[in-house]
Design goal:
By secondary structure, the protein is α/β, with parallel strands linked by helices. The protein has a single domain, classed as Glutaconate Coenzyme A-transferase. It is 23% helix and 23% strand. The chain has helices at 9-19, 33-44, 86-94, 135-141, 173-176, 214-219, 238-247; strands at residues 26-28, 50-52, 57-58, 82-83, 100-103, 107-109, 114-115, 118-121, 124-128, 143-147, 155-156, 183-188, 192-196, 203-208, 226-232. The strands form 4 sheets. Strands 2-1-5-10-12-13-14-15 form an 8-stranded mixed beta sheet, with helices on both faces. The protein has a 3-stranded mixed beta sheet with strand order 7-6-11, with no helix packed on it. Helix 2 (33-44) crosses helix 7. The two termini are 25 Å apart.
Amino acid sequence: MTERKNYTASELLAVMSARILHDGQVVFAGVGVPLLAATLAQRLHAPGLTILFEGGVLGPFVVPGQLPPSTNEQRCTRRANMLLPITDVLLLLQRGYVDVGFMGGAQIDKFGNLNSSYIGDVDNPKIRLPGTGGGNDISSLTQMIVTMKHEKRRFVEKVDFITSPGFIDGGTSRADSGLPTGGMFKVVTDLAMLGFDPQTREMMVEALHPGVTLQQVRDNTGFAIKENGVETTMPPTDRELSVLRVLDPERIYTA
């Protein structure tokens, strides 16, 4: 009999993402799971982690139970270290002051390229998506963590449009295209932890979440995914979940 999990898929994403953040890092975080992960890391093991919002806020204090619904909302500015114009935030990226970027997307391919622009043909798209915002800047200039649901329609051989570059066509193509720094670091899904081969830059399975099989990952991936010494992640602890639920007591982002 399978043991029943006492956490949701969103809580799993937040906890697993928080674990790979470190003290002293500057993290460019959006609302939702990225913000929860960064704030959870602050509370548990990385008190010196600094959150940066696209709206121009550097080092805010996120009040438990009062998570901002947008990076431009006033709750983002509470007890912040600095408020900047959005252009200056992007300058921080260009000058190398930001360590990690958090992002999601409608599609991701085997080289970590993200699409949040449209699905289908450019001249007659099936679906129009929100677009880049600061996504291109973030993915071009930082180490990226991507969080998303693991579905075949999302994990595709080649994205319909590269909104945010990963490793482009693999190998040295990212650097050859004029992006010598940054790149995709980890992809965190509800099934597994994924990384990238240091030579080919293809996505590979590094660890499975409890109760997940490698075949499940393959069945939900639209390309032949590689593996590298696959381990099993430790499930969210009671402490991680209790702190997370204090941050989001209404389960707005973690239902």
